[in-house]
């Protein structure tokens, strides 16, 4: 019995149409896990960025707090409020990959973010294969 070419094409197409899950949108305003700030995530060109939009707990030097822990001395005079701490995030499957800057330590980490089942944002900072996760909630 000859196998019709159209059937073979449909079967091949079935194997190729593996469900590809796109990363859920993560834009919006998010309260950090420590509840000390709000980060606004937005589209910036072809990537996603996130800036420190609001202090919920004032830093030691008030809203004018500078980036004093930055290892680059030239950047230590920039103000934290309004500064991008999430940069270069691109969709990768069902998550977003980029970099996160921690102004408390002055370090930048590889990062992965995605929307959890509860609608909260899971934010991971990674060194090598090891990641530490936080859960950010929608800001009110």
Report on this model:
9% of the residues lie in helices and 45% in strands. It has one helix at 5-16, and strands at residues 28-31, 37-44, 47-55, 84-92, 95-102, 107-115, 121-127, 130-138. Strand 5 and strand 6 (107-115) form a beta hairpin. It contains one helix and eight strands, in the order αββββββββ. The radius of gyration is 20 Å and the shape is globular. With 140 residues, the chain is mainly beta. The protein has one domain: Beta Barrel (Lipocalin), CATH 2.40.128.520. Residues 1-22 form the signal peptide.
Structural class assignment: mainly beta
Q: What is the string of helix and strand elements?
A: HEEEEEEEE
How is the main sheet built?
A: 8 strands, antiparallel, barrel
CATH C-level class is Mainly Beta
Share of residues in helices: under 10%
Instruction: Output the radius of gyration.
Output: 20 Å
Which strand-content bin applies to the residues? over 45%
Overall shape: globular
State the total count of DSSP E strands. 8
Q: How many discrete domains?
A: 1
Q: Please name the CATH architecture.
A: Beta Barrel
Round the mean pLDDT to the nearest integer and report it: 88
Q: Helical segment tally?
A: 1
In terms of per-residue confidence, which ranges show pLDDT below 50 for 5 or more consecutive residues?
6-20
Going across the biggest sheet, name each strand in turn: 1-2-3-4-5-6-7-8
